[in-house]
Design goal:
It contains 7 helices and 2 strands. It is an all-alpha fold and about 150 residues long. It has a two-stranded antiparallel sheet with strand order 1-2. Helix 5 packs antiparallel against helix 6 and helix 5 runs parallel beside helix 7. The longest helix has 22 residues.
């Protein structure tokens, strides 16, 4: 197996962070517990017949720690973008991770962040939910990076 590219590891970090934030929301797991669970049990493993590209652990850690630390502000941004309607937990986790990155990773191009999270949404949902993720992140990017 070839060594994964830096870009592939960053994309994997975003997917893995989304899954960890979802897991944290569903189980009251802390960000540290979610990080340890991934690194010790999942990173680069064959899971259900699929080889997963190992995530960039630095980005993964920053996202889950940041979402945990800024959860209330991020939640308010999601609810504002959706006119108070709360999305289901996995869709919410995708949006939370994307908004955190738009808030705190100014060195990463807005389009890269939005595109990667729209692609994460495509992994779990139909086009309409991916479009919703795109709309919410795009709206918040305009507010955060004006």
């Amino acid at each position: 197996m070839r060594k994964p590219s830096k870009t592939a590891k960053l994309i994997s970090a975003r997917l893995t962070a989304t899954q960890a934030v979802y897991q944290m929301a569903m189980s009251d797991m802390t960000d540290r517990e979610a990080y340890d669970d991934y690194v010790q049990r999942r990173m680069g493993q064959d899971v259900e017949g699929d080889d997963y590209i190992p995530a960039d652990t630095e980005l993964f850690s920053k996202i889950i720690t940041g979402v945990s630390k800024h959860r209330d502000a991020i939640r308010d941004m999601v609810l504002s973008a959706l006119n108070g309607k709360k999305p289901e937990p996995l869709l919410q986790s995708i949006m939370f991770c994307g908004i955190y990155e738009l808030m705190h990773h100014n060195e990463i191009d807005t389009g890269v962040i939005i595109n990667d999270y729209v692609n994460v949404a495509h992994g779990f949902y139909d086009q309409s939910e991916a479009n919703l993720v795109n709309a919410v992140l795009d709206r918040q990017a305009k507010n955060l990076r004006a």
